[in-house]
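Usage

Read records sequentially. Each one opens with the input sequence:
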Amino acid sequence: MDSHLYPTYARADIEFERGDGSWLYTGDGTPYLDFAAGIAVCSLGHNHPHLVEALKDQADKLWHTSNMFRIPGQERLADRLTEVTFADLVFVTNSGTEAMECAFKTARKYFAVNGHPEKFKLITFEGAFHGRSLAAISAGGRDNYLDGFGERTPGFSQVPFGDLEAAEAAIDDETAGFLLEPIQGEGGIRVFEVSFLRKLRKLADEHGLLIVLDEVQCGVGRTGQLFAHELAGITPDIMAIAKGIGGGFPVGACLATKEVGACMVKGTHGSTYGGNPLATAVANAVLDVVLEPDFLPAIREKGIKLRQKLARLCDENSDIFEEVRGEGLILGLKCRCEVPDMMAACREAKILVVGAGENVIRLLPPLTVSEDEIDQALERLSEACAIVRSGHGDVAKSGT
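and closes with the structure output:
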């Protein structure tokens, strides 16, 4: 029988029954090393005991009340996020796309309440991905995501990746600020240089504009810093987060300074499910782990070792890979072969990876991945290279 689901995904024909740490298991017990982590979502791996305990404990108490009432877990999450970031105010959402929508609205509202309603446009950068809503795909600017959905949502213009002169030239009387991912995930693990981010912050300040960061994928420890922009020593005015903050449970947030976020007064935004007791219990449990003193330094160390091993893999398989990209545990391999072929070969080698733009595969292991699992990943990636060369099995019919 054909599935009654929308045919919007090119799904691999694999079903997983359970997970444990960095591993996923099919119904017959076949283990796969998970270097996809639900696209950087399962930040603490699968079946993490502290997250499971937090969810079960809250599930026995209360699931939902709506934001008509105070939610202590939501307030605690906001308190903790503001303690460790630039932000003073937090709006809790269900997803990264919702966090981005809140960010768009906050940027526009800030200028409107300060006497400049004409300033509603954000300058974005080629290769961006900011979600799947109509506004988010307009911000991303990719024709393949926009095709068939009518006119683009106004308020976004795009300049080449990392081009500061183009960014400055794009500023006009309607510009509210700049929107970017410090590390583009979907765009191919492209890292904005530290010097560029610092100059962009300076440019925004000179023109009285905002910096809006999308750290939905690269945030919550994935670079070895709590958030990727910390690598450049800059602070945004607004930031969207999600994915890793929930460890697999749907939750996101929009963070802002008091100056900017205070414009979002009663009635300007809302969410039925956003920040519900279940979601915030899990998000707080994630922070319990990520904010442990040794956790982020361990990610930096593992990231360096993984990158070094991947560089060696590239040297040994220069017919398959061109280069390694990324920071910490958000890494990419630019392929010479077709990405669908490499992904199929990786599945045959029992390791899961994620495709991206610029013919790149993303490696996004759980932040809890062990050094032994990193070594196993390299063995399996090497095996995948051999499979690609042979062109047998699923590679020959991958096509997706």
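Summary fields computed downstream for this record:
- Residues 50-290 form a domain with the Aspartate Aminotransferase; domain 2 fold (CATH 3.40.640.10).
- The first helix runs from residue 37 to 40.
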